[in-house]
Amino acid sequence: MNLKLHRWMNTLYILPIFLFLGVFIYYSLFDTFMTSLYKWNGFSEDKTFIGLSNYAQLLADPIFYQAIRNTLVYMVLTIGVQMVLGLLIALLLKTNVMLKTLYKIIFFLPVVLSHSVVSYVFRHIYDANDGSLNRALEAAGLDALALSWLADPDIALYAIIVINIWAWTGFSFVMYYAALTLIDKELYEAAKIDGAGPFRTVVGITFPLLRSTHFSLIILGVIGSLKQFDYVFLTTGGGPGRSTELLSTYIYKKAILEYNAGYSSAMAVILLVIALLLTAVQLRAYRSS
């Protein structure tokens, strides 16, 4: 009797989280998929079942492919640069430098700043007429490099990528710094006795032992890139000419601005599938390595 009661008590402990997941996650996913099968404006009672027509239309939509390309470029550059810079900063701060705590605060501070504040500040920095970036370039005699950073379709996406790198490199730094503290110092002492220099030590010891941190940052970076919305929406709105349009911003425009809930739901389903596939590939690569 006590064993049965114990099992029921355990079930009651985990029941709230299952109810939460069921209502807010799994039901929402199911409802999104069902909505993608209809032609619906998102608020009226009139819904027309059209099957997979939204998906067929989606596969013929050039803007959708543009958004995928932009998202992939955004993902690769932000993840790669943040990881490299974060690791370099962590390695530097593991040495005997003065004011180490101050540097940690400075590097991590952008992570906790509001996205809206960061976007607002960088809009003024990138301003073509009166921005501080162009003013600094002109003061340095580099007038040719003073560009319309957010209005030029060739560079606008990369300008937003810089915003993300500035804001989130501190997170990569903290992850790497925490992982570095777990590495046995005797490994470095043995390498030093064997005559290994700093570069060889990092390549042969530090980098391989940070494997789990690498994969964690990649997974988190992929998820963050796929759902990135704030920086793009608050700086360029997806323009100019769709040059900074991401999947998340395109879904928003279709659902909220164009009242096409069915089409946006189809894109949301595709976005979920892409996220699951990329995560599965990364987990498989992690296990095989």
TrEMBL record:
It is found in: Cell membrane. Keywords: Cell membrane, Membrane, Transmembrane, Transmembrane helix, Transport. One of its GO terms (cellular component) is plasma membrane. The chain crosses the membrane at residues 12-30, 72-93, 105-126, 155-180, 201-223, 261-281. This is Sugar ABC transporter permease. It is a multi-pass membrane protein. GO terms for biological process: transmembrane transport. Belongs to the binding-protein-dependent transport system permease family. The lineage of its organism: Bacteria, Bacillati, Bacillota, Bacilli, Bacillales. It comes from Paenibacillus piri.
